[in-house]
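Usage

Read records sequentially. Each one opens with the input sequence:
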Amino acid sequence: MIKSGDVISYIEMCHEEGVNLQRGMNFHLNGQISIILMSLRLNAPYSDCVEDDGNILIYEGHDVNRTKETPIPKIVDQPLKNPSGTFTQNGLFFDSAKRYKNEKKNPELVKVYEKLHTGMWVYNGIFELIDAWQEESNNRTVFKFKLRLTEISQPQDNRDKSKINLHHDRIIPSQVKLSVWKRDKGKCVKCGSTDNLHFDHIIPFSKGGSSLVQENIQILCARHNIGKRDRIE
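and closes with the structure output:
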């Protein structure tokens, strides 16, 4: 079972979710929790960003599919509905965010995976979808979704406070992750293992450690990460 900060392959990510993830937005995937795939890389197709020291994710909606009629999706407004009148993935997430704000419903829980580079993903944890809007960008209308990091450790925890995992950290910026990966040579700094790796805060966020500097981030294998817990070494 993966946890926030784990480094996984695409195959491992699909195995975790029990389905081949082919799109970035997945509302109630297989009738279960919603999932989004994000990227903060310079060449990423969408303008996602992280705010509040990794506590808030601003996620951009997705374009229409490339077809003969729309050969350049980036010049077309992002769609709320399909031609049939049903909601697109944008529409489903947008409707859920509005129901949370306007009807005081529980916010949608969303698992977030981040692509660092080809074949390498990081699980960023479970977020609450708390807002959505449309804005103008490069002469077209796009969707923006605001998600807030939760302390819920697993989707089935729902909102049972007795099961909430209070040990969590903020999202580590992509450039910091990539710098740490290069510095630590993609290995556990304790034993050199290349399996079951995890981005670890040397000083935990809960004890004042930062997610924004590579000096406070290291790579640990599962054994050493579990062994460390909340200790400051």
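Summary fields computed downstream for this record:
- The chain has two domains: 7-168, 172-233.
- Residues 89-103 form the longest helix (15 residues).
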